[in-house]
Amino acid sequence: MNLLEQLDSDPPLRAVRTFEAFARHGGVNAAARELDVSPSAVSHQLHLLEGFLGQPLTVRQGRNLILTEQGREYYRAIRSAFAVLRSATDHVREQSATRQVTISLIPMFGLNLFIPRLNEFLADNPGVDVNVTYANHRSYPSDAADISIRFGTGHWSGYHSELLIPGAVTAWCSPALIARCGPLDTPQALAGVALLHDEERGTWAQWLQANGVKHPAPLQGLLFEDGQLTLAAAMRGLGCALLREPLVAAARDSGELIRLFDHELEDGRAYYLCRRTDGELSREGLSLFNWIRTRF
What is the pTM (predicted TM-score) of this model? Predict the structure, then answer.
């Protein structure tokens, strides 16, 4: 493909931006107000994008435009990119705030460990503004944060990473599931229990195989995009989940979750504390970085 053909294949960015605003707000008028254009200009850009893609993204329902199935799928595909763009833009605009530190977090870590303990850091560091954003593992290369908590193998180009929480997972479920299914005394008892999967079904397959439990291939069960959704489903009694104990300690202590067995599985992934290698952290950023590495 030559350069001219490559340029011709790029989507019309203004139209994509208009579509994202329309899909996020759910209406032409709201998108027009955000973009400071007329509703007819929004409609024109939507038609332009549909022509480029060769399929309808919207359909008229009464007096309103709504997304088609293709439109919903396209929005799901681009929304994380716009979230990263907004995060990066905000970071650059706010760099002059010398007392601000931006940290991006995996929701599982943020909700269960970081936020419950954040008051400790703020009490010892008055005046430091902590800007907390989501760390999307699919968009790590574009992360604009000073510090990030990441989930994976620990190797990301341009980042220094330190192991924070090891990757051993164990089986957990709610008391309600046990009351419904009966005692789960051995790994073999899980053969007839609903399993909950975090991002992929391979980890449960490894755990079952390691414990001599026969299972259908491929495995069935609810599949969730991240660990926090998986945790919520387990706490509601929807099935058994493989979780890391430090991240579910509060649910364990409250009795909302029960660890079923001592069997552990290292799935090759863990939580890491990361910082970029292309610059130095501010004094405030270094304070937060050191607090995290000693507190978790």
Answer: 0.65
Q: Are 261 and 170 in contact (CB under 8 A)?
A: yes
pLDDT digits (tens, 9 = 90+) for 121-149: 999 998 899 999 888 655 565 577 899 99
Residue type, 122: L
Task: Provide CATH code, domain 99-165+270-295.
Answer: 3.40.190.10
H-helix segments, the chain: 3-9, 13-25, 28-35, 39-53, 69-93, 107-109, 115-124, 175-181, 202-210, 227-235, 249-254, 283-295
Tell the CATH topology of 168-266: D-Maltodextrin-Binding Protein; domain 2 (3.40.190)
For 11, residues 6+ apart whose C-beta sits below 8 A from its C-beta are 49, 52, 53
Q: Which has the closest alpha carbon to 275: 164, 146, 100?
A: 146
Within the chain, which residues score under 50 in pLDDT?
Answer: 1-7, 97
The reply to whether 168-266 shares the fold of 99-165+270-295 is yes
**All structural domains of the chain with their residue ranges:** 3-88, 99-165+270-295, 168-266
Fold of 3-88: Arc Repressor Mutant, subunit A (1.10.10)
Nearest to 197, CA basis, from 187, 207, 185: 207
Nearest to 200, CA basis, from 151, 148, 248: 151
With H, G, I as helix, E, B as strand and everything else as coil, classify residue 295: helix
Category of 172 on φ-ψ map: left (φ > 0), alpha (ψ -120 to 50) or beta: beta
Q: What's residue 138's pLDDT?
A: 56
